[in-house]
Amino acid sequence: MNAEIIAVGTELLLGQIVNSNASYLSKELALLGIDVFNHTVVGDNDKRMREAVKIAEERADILIFSGGLGPTQDDMTKQVLADHLGLPLAVDKATEQKVVQYHADMEREMSENNRLQAVVIEGATVLKNETGLAAGMYVEHEGKKYILLPGPPNELQPMFDNEVRPILAKLTEDSDQLVSRVLRLFGIGESQLAAQLETIIDTQTNPTIATYAEENEVSIRITAKGQDQDQCNQLIDQMEKQVRDIVGDYIYGVGSETSLAQVVRDLLVNKDYRLTAAESLTGGLFQSSLVNIPGLSLNFIGGLVSYSEGIKESVLGVSEETIEQYGVVSSECAEEMADKVKEMFDADIGISFTGYAGPKEVDGDKAGIVWIGLAVTGRETQTYYYHFGKDRNGNRKRSVLTGFDLVRRLLLELPSQKK
Amino acid sequence: MNAEIIAVGTELLLGQIVNSNASYLSKELALLGIDVFNHTVVGDNDKRMREAVKIAEERADILIFSGGLGPTQDDMTKQVLADHLGLPLAVDKATEQKVVQYHADMEREMSENNRLQAVVIEGATVLKNETGLAAGMYVEHEGKKYILLPGPPNELQPMFDNEVRPILAKLTEDSDQLVSRVLRLFGIGESQLAAQLETIIDTQTNPTIATYAEENEVSIRITAKGQDQDQCNQLIDQMEKQVRDIVGDYIYGVGSETSLAQVVRDLLVNKDYRLTAAESLTGGLFQSSLVNIPGLSLNFIGGLVSYSEGIKESVLGVSEETIEQYGVVSSECAEEMADKVKEMFDADIGISFTGYAGPKEVDGDKAGIVWIGLAVTGRETQTYYYHFGKDRNGNRKRSVLTGFDLVRRLLLELPSQKK
Fold first, then answer.
1. Does the distance separating the beta carbons of B26 and A15 come in below 8 Å?
2. Residue B387 confidence (pLDDT) above 70
3. Is CATH 3.40.50.10860 what the domain over A177-254 is classified as, yes or no?
4. Angstrom distances, CA of residue B17 to CA of A263, A305, B336
5. Which A-chain residues 98-157 have CB contacts (< 8 A) with chain B?
6. What would the CATH number be for the domain defined by A260-413?
7. PANTHER family, from UniProt (chains A, B) (predicted)?
8. Which A residues, 19 through 38, put their C-beta within 8 Å of a C-beta on chain B?
9. For a FRET experiment, which of A378, B112, B195, B281 has its CA 20 to 30 Å from that of B309?
């Protein structure tokens, strides 16, 4: 069974946005054991959309569309498809009610074209949109399957996850199962990782193993084929053990949705430690990443963005002497920042970030020099030196992740404080 | 004249990487006035690649390939195309020399398959690869043009820039120019915007106008065709004026790379105002967005992440009475937070964020209720109430952007303090 992904939208053809939906869907379809042999992108154009559908019908069993389900004139995916299939359109009452209610709640005037988002192809299984208004659709017609999803990724992904995956899983029930596990690593580069895992990589059959580099991290994907999930997972367990024996120290978590911030959050909550931060170059990014996930307010109570030199002294209380003698980007300053913010927020752990974010035009050769301070109750405050690259936002992100990894490793050592 | 972009690579169909090359090329082609009506992705498969080429030849004048030029077994783009066109392959001596030299310099053993990267379609214009080894190609054959580029973006982009652009510019010399301008809006939904611009949208010919929804923002793209850039810009100016007459209040900037944070930053620097923030639910995201761009440290000196209730009192100084009487998510608390942080950081403007980020499971119906406080020297502190959605990170991002828009509008009113 194979699928073709058809992304609809002139903005894609103008290069205004990247087709991330195709990648997301491809990954998910691969896990379901469904082959994808073609991606297609067409614009908001009736004729060319029809042509794309006809071509796809020649070579795919499942056609998955993203985009073109909105309320404007350019949105025509369901209209074109309905006409092509010779099926009428109809209003889905539940979706219509939701659209009307949304505008009432927001105390916002609703223009009539919004109702279009509740129009579906007659006979379709309506796919609920939890994060937006436009209804998705699943249509079976003359042996082919058509799935219509909204364009915005934050609407498409939950809809696929909740509504489409069960449908496709049922379609592929009798095929081999594919199960993937992703190991997440920090602190090692991809070519080094590939070199260390060379033997495993060269001798792989089932499971398969592949390394991927992301910004500042690497991951390992182990994929097993088998008759059922259990058999797959057993094969993966074996290979995972081999991998951990070699590079286990760098593995911080499992799962493609896991993040260093999430792992730190879980450790803070489970071991009941309070964390605070004083951020200079990172400007709030560390703390912001931490509060992505709810349920943290007992263990992260707040922190400081001490962006300028003056604020480090006046608000945070770093001594004038320290700054005059060593400068703000120094081991001494990082140490004091960590100690002071820990005290100010009455925390168990205080982390500080000070450095030259760059770019090169602003900070010259100093761009990328970062000190991270880590103060812990009952231990000597440590400071860590890094010399990253020249890219400002790259340095900020890398500093934040490095900070999270330091806190993670620290928390793994510390005893639990949970009562 | 139109082009089709064909990206080659099974890793794309497995969703391992995103097709950023198609976006890059589309943007560049649009600027050259070359229409792109289709993107296609195929895997490292002879048969399906040929099919894609045949389909593209039916509908495009220019076929641009990315990927499949490397030294491994999976790399077959030039071989498949040469065979399809009935042209032989030949070794390009200059490229071969470069490949051999590279390995000698690196003291690296060169496996013979590396020489493949110097093989080109006979008669092709060889496109030099400045950042990698594989040669690119430009082939004219029976009225069609074929451009073969390497997959890695850091090889493709310079090759396009240096080698391909001049060729395409020559091809389009006598054609019309295409110029686009993007207007950025905040505070209005896409369907409302489309409704207000209905007349302009319905009567468009040249320029064309389209609306796009992004997360929390909308944009308007006006694209004009003309003999030269000046003529295009004049046409765009006329339509932009019509648009501003209707929805100008929501337009915060021009350009697809512009952001609310950037606009606020520029206003802070140009009018010389100091800004600080006390962030609760947003957790540092507002401040972090501000420091994305360098050069701000005189106008943003720092701020607070006052995540928990206790910190609002102990560090920020919000009175216990206020919190007991009104709660932390209230107009009164937002007002005091803004006043206190402005005082603490000795700023001209203090902004505060307090609310229930959600999700629904945590905050129930209160999810999405946000108060933003805005304190300005010499003015009465204002507070603003919002009821956003149920998505935690959506609410945080939306709060941040709403905060930026409030600061933006405020700064537009205030007189410059610059000496």
1. yes
2. yes
3. no
4. 25, 35, 48
5. 105-109, 111-114, 131, 152, 154
6. 3.90.950.20
7. NICOTINAMIDE-NUCLEOTIDE AMIDOHYDROLASE PNCC, NMN AMIDOHYDROLASE-LIKE PROTEIN YFAY
8. 19-20, 22-30, 36-38
9. A378
